[in-house]
Amino acid sequence: MSFERLQDQIREKKNPTVAGLDPRLEYVPPFLLEEKVKEYGETLRAAAEAIYAYNAGLIDALCDVVPAVKPQSAFYERFGFEGVEALKRTVDYAKEKGLYVIMDAKRGDIGSTAEGYSDAYLGTVSVGGTEFAPFDCDCLTINAYLGSDGIKPFLKDCAARDRAVFALVKTSNPSSGELQNIVAGDRKVYNVVGDLLERLSGETVDKYGYTCLGAVTGATYPLDIRDLRRRLAKTFFLVPGYGAQGGKAEDVQYAFDGYGHGAIVNSSRGIICAWQKTGKEGKDFGDAARDAAVAMRDDLKKYVTIV
Questions:
Q1: What pLDDT sits at residue 241?
Q2: HSE-up of 53 (CA within 13 Å, CB side)?
Q3: What is the CA radius of gyration of the chain?
Q4: H-type helices in 234-278, by residue range?
Q5: What pLDDT sits at residue 283?
Q6: Contact predicate 242/252, CB 8 Å
Q7: Which of 28, 34, 99, 254 could join 94 in a cystine, given CB atoms 3.0 to 4.6 angstroms apart?
Q8: What confidence score (pLDDT) does residue 297 get?
Q9: Can you tell me the distance from the alpha carbon of 296 to that of 64, in angstroms, rounded to the nearest whole number?
Q10: Which residues have a Cβ under 8 Å from the Cβ of 71 and sit 6 or more positions away?
Q11: Which residues in the chain come in under a pLDDT of 50?
């Protein structure tokens, strides 16, 4: 099972951290961008190549510290097909380095369109008699708010190809409560979605007791995380919002079970932009990212013990 592999890596590295690879161009050290502009001019290709070089350096620095990376597709798509190519190369390089890859694309649709998204990120496509895995990610974020019709197509590839998804349940943004906290019958809407995930994936439980349908649960709402963990004993949590968004280690501790299992905490800017605080003009961006990831790991250890 896919989350089983992720949990194995978390236990091996004693670190439930995923580094978000969300490379705005202003996050890329200037010297890297200048190199690529000299080679390709002020073009989308130069931007994409600078982003890939940045990502590769980050992956090299982080691969023995963090168990996973999470590229956010929007930061690549904004640079057109060249950016999407850089995204694919980033995924391939991260997997080459042994990292678990969560594609943060928040796809959400139904029927054949959902199947297409699943084929692209988790599954395969055939060209004549040859089969290809286009992005070959370990995991994908999806929007579950279309109901089971928007979840089941992804579940098929999860079961068939040892993949997983994280569905939006209780997100970290300030306005999430406008919809997710509405009471529907005797439950809040985010609880309805969480319950649906466990019901649909009940037959995919791994050795740690978790199914292949995980939940996105924001660190900025620790009491909700605590309640969701009690409610969704079989659901693996992806926890955004630590660090730059205000979430603390004290808050995210509620996402984990009694063994320190069942959750992974994301940090994006706090890790990949750490070089901006060192005064070395980005020449040390890999070392700075590594130091930030180690500091985050040690911060989480104060509240979460992984056995």
A1: 87
A2: 19
A3: 19
A4: 249-252, 269-272
A5: 96
A6: yes
A7: 99
A8: 97
A9: 14
A10: 20, 21, 22, 55, 87, 90, 91, 94, 101, 103, 104
A11: none
Residues β-bridged to residue 170: 217
- Core vs surface per residue 139-149: b (16+ CB within 10 A) or e: bbbbbbbeeee
Q: Are 65 and 51 a contacting pair, CB within 8 Å?
A: no
The whole-angstrom separation of Cα 97 and Cα 56 is 10
**Domains present along the chain, CATH in parentheses:** 2-301 (3.20.20.70)
Under a CB-based contact definition with an 8 Å cutoff, are residues 188 and 180 in contact? yes
> 209-234 burial, b if ≥16 CB within 10 A, otherwise e?
bbbbbbbbbbbbbbebbebbbeebeb
Closest CA to 107 of 98, 91, 92, 118: 118
Alpha-carbon dihedral angle through residues 17, 21, 24, 28, given to the nearest 10 degrees = 90
Q: What is the pTM of this model?
A: 0.97
Distances (CA, A) of 251 to 97, 184, 243: 31, 26, 11
Spell out where the chain has E strands: 17-21, 68-71, 100-107, 125-127, 130-132, 139-142, 164-170, 183-184, 187-188, 213-217, 237-239, 263-267
Which residues are known to be catalytic?
106
Backbone angles phi, psi at 29, to 5 degrees: -55, 135
Cα(307)–Cα(297) distance, integer angstroms: 15
Question: What type of residue is 147?
Answer: G
